[in-house]
Amino acid sequence: MDLILWRHADAQDGMPDLERALTAKGLKQAERMAAWLKPRLPEDCRILVSPATRTRQTADALDLRYQVVERIAPGADPTAVLAAAGWPDAERAALVVGHQPTLGLACGLLLCGEETELSIKKGGVVWLSNRVRGGQMQTVIKVVMTPELL
């Protein structure tokens, strides 16, 4: 299974948190990452998005249908993100557009076996896959990309 974790792009400060919108910089970050990501996504990829305005705006840059998932809102437990995506057994790839520290913790859990605090840059993507090798389940890093590297 492929699991793509996409942190929302740069957003305005303020409250209420769920209503924070992307900045002009964030809109450009989202557009650049979407232009890179869209042709690489598996055709049947499920796109799961936090209900926050900034994550929906980030996902909108893909111009693809997505599902808003309440349980991956800001402050979500990293295991809720993995469960929503169906990791590791889903038959289809999943793209999760979410937040720090949740995405970083989920990534750390998959790569290190515990909720290690990894940081994903704003607008950045971590693309993971899994495989069985020698009878052991392994998490494979396929891509780590940031808007600045595009």
Task: Summarize the structure in words.
With 150 residues, the chain is α/β, with parallel strands linked by helices. The chain has a single domain, classed as Rossmann fold, CATH 3.40.50. It is built from 4 helices and 6 strands; from the N terminus they run E-H-E-H-E-H-E-H-E-E. The chain starts with a strand and ends in a 5-residue tail after the last strand.
Nearest-integer average pLDDT: 97
Helical fraction equals: 25-40%
Shape: globular
SS-based class: alpha/beta
Question: How are the strands of the biggest sheet laid out side by side?
Answer: 3-2-4-1-5-6
CATH fold call: Rossmann fold
Contiguous low-pLDDT stretches (5 residues minimum) are none
User: Multimeric state of these chains?
Assistant: single chain
Q: Which architecture name does CATH use?
A: 3-Layer(aba) Sandwich
Number of strands: 6
What's the number of domains? 1
Helix count equals 4
Task: Describe this structure in a few short sentences.
This protein is an alpha/beta fold and 150 residues long.
Structural descriptors:
150 residues; alpha/beta; six-stranded mixed sheet; 6 strands; globular
Question: What's the arrangement of secondary structure elements?
Answer:
Blueprint: E1 2-7, H1 24-37, E2 46-49, H2 53-60, E3 67-68, H3 78-85, E4 94-98, H4 102-112, E5 125-133, E6 136-145
